[in-house]
Amino acid sequence: MRFRHPDGSTVHLAYCTNVHPAETLDGVLAQLRDHCEPVRRRLGRDRLGIGLWLARDAAHALVTDPSALRGLRTELERRGLEVVTLNGFPYEGFGAEEVKYRVYQPDWADPERLAHTTDLARVLAQLLPDDVTEGSISTLPLAWRTAYDQERATAAHTALTTLAERLDALNELTGRSLRIGLEPEPGCTVETTRDALAPLTAIGHDRIGICVDTCHLATSFEDPHTALDALTQARVPIVKSQLSAALHAEHPHLPEVRAALAAFDEPRFLHQTRTLTAAGLRGTDDLGQALAGDALPDASPWRAHFHVPLHAAPAAPLTSTLPVLRAALTRLVGGPHPLTHHLEVETYTWQALPPELRPRARAQLADGIAAELTLARDLLTDLGLKELP
């Protein structure tokens, strides 16, 4: 979906396909048929943007087989789909029964991360629509915080600098300008936008910037205006933003609130949980840990890294951080010029919701994704952007 900003530039809105992960190229093609095109039809649009997640094997197959890459582009066009952004955070296994800490491997100190992201860039350069010259790829924020010493930090810095050089060369070769955004996430080396300032300014290349995920922003209790202003002042490029909402519990000391939270404690993904105290931010790696005894202070609200559907906040006594998303979006695209031109709805947790809230069929999932995109579209038009055909 494309929108015209009042300054005349185009803002792209997509939804991320990691909600129905596929490890192989055949699986990606099935995604387009079974999920992406039905969502487009529900929206009544001739064109729908998708943020592709390509696992290692799928990306490698596309890079090594030009005919396969041409075939994917043809299939996208045939189904009324377009790609201007990729989700390069998960490497593989995102559909496994248990993902948890595995999603952070390999990290940016591992040569495999550089190789995979280079493959993604080469693929995206060929998938961009003919009238689009700029693409974006989100990636993990360096590494999970443990076992990340100075030696690994130096290796990550070198890898990202090498990637920037490769993106420069790719631009010269193809005329397509691609940028990478580190995506701050609770528990990682770069947990907040503030944490991103030092490593990104040290790299000092405009092809390496930040991806602002509004669920992660909210989980860490960051104020959107303060965070985004700091990035702007530091001249850190906001490569893309993922529009998502976290789980919010206003009174976590109450038994009924803890019982409601426990329904979201599931085995597939990490749901880092945070609270803001007078002494600063406190947290646990997972929701179950927070609910276990006195692991996390409960005198102040809790927020958990659980991407809840944008249009459907949990039932009381829980809610979502949709207000944080609204505030961030106002700052991102509501001003005289957009801070980013790439927006991506990323609710990958539909099948991790409590059983009674999960879609029971493909049609229900498509309905839910279409409803999320409709809400995002309405937020954009309320800010003065005009939806384009």
TrEMBL record:
Note the PROSITE patterns from the entry: AP_NUCLEASE_F2_2
Query: Per its UniProt entry, which superkingdom is the organism in?
Result: Bacteria
Assigned keywords, A-Z: Isomerase
Q: Which GO terms describe its molecular function?
A: isomerase activity; zinc ion binding
InterPro entries hit by this protein: AP_endonuc_F2_Zn_BS, Xyl_isomerase-like_sf, Xyl_isomerase-like_TIM-brl
Q: Name one Pfam family in it.
A: AP_endonuc_2
Where the record annotates domain Xylose isomerase-like TIM barrel, the positions are: 60-230
Keyword Isomerase listed? The answer is yes
Record's protein name? Xylose isomerase
Species name for this entry? Streptomyces olivochromogenes
